[in-house]
Amino acid sequence: MKDILRSAAALGLVALVGTTLLTGVDWLTAGRIAEQERRVVLEQLGQIIPDQYDNSLLEDKITLMDEYFFPKGQQVTVWRARSQGKPMAAILKFNAVNGYNGNITLLAGINMDGSLRGVRVISHKETPGLGDAIDIEKSDWVRGFTGKSLANPPNEKWKVKREGGEFDQFTGATITPRAVVDAVRLALEFFADNQELLFESPAVVDRTEMQ
Questions:
Q1: Tens of pLDDT, residues 9-44
Q2: Which of 87, 63, 82, 62 is nearest to 74 (CA)?
Q3: How far is residue 167's CA from residue 159's CA, in Å, rounded to a whole number?
Q4: With 0-12 CB in 10 A as exposed, 13-18 as middle and 19+ as buried, what is 187?
Q5: Do 89 and 111 contact (CB within 8 A), yes or no?
Q6: Dist. CA 88–CA 130, nearest whole Å
Q7: Which candidate among 132, 184, 189, 199 keeps its CA 20 to 30 Å from the CA of 109?
Q8: Residue 171: φ, ψ to 5°
């Protein structure tokens, strides 16, 4: 019985020490992780919109859900860019939910006139050598969205060329570019219908981004 108790006590001590060490490591690295995430966010936003705004994007942010424009229960983040207090552009982070291998997370910067400042793919699981051409590090395909709007091209041309649209598909991969084109078009439609809401809603600040 004494041996059993000693063994149990030893195991308990090991578990306590292990938990304490893990908690300490988490505490020490939390700040570094938050700072790295903040840098990544700023870098991604900087690819979409240059430093023409004079507000803090990280502070001027809202989150929303809209099942029609952004399906499958996704939460959309919107950063608002302003100049001298006037709305200038919005940058939306959302998912194209019909990718070949799952969600494709996108950033889309939209001017007040409804034209695109740019689109970037920030995460995906598409097939290397086929669908991954959506990544700007793999090809310039995603740059083709810059300057586009709901009127340019017209709605019926917001498709890949194989389906009668204006956007290139990839050799052996149509599903991936189709998913991105559809998601960006829906984001533009959402922006057109909700511009006032987007810029007048009170900001929700994530303090971890600001540390």
A1: 666 665 565 565 555 555 556 567 657 656 767 787
A2: 63
A3: 6
A4: buried
A5: yes
A6: 36
A7: 132
A8: -60, 120
Residue in the block written with tokens 């700023």: 42
**Structure pTM?**
0.80
Longest dimension (CA), the chain: 82
Residue 204 three-state SS? coil
**Contact partners, residue 135, CB within 8 Å, separation at least 6:** 121, 124, 142
Q: How far apart are CA 1 and CA 8, in angstroms?
A: 11
The set of residues, in sequence order, having a beta carbon less than 8 Å from that of 37 and lying 6+ positions away, is 208, 209
Give the containing element (helix H, strand E) for 87: strand 86-99
Which two structure tokens, joined as six digits, stand for 104? 């494709």
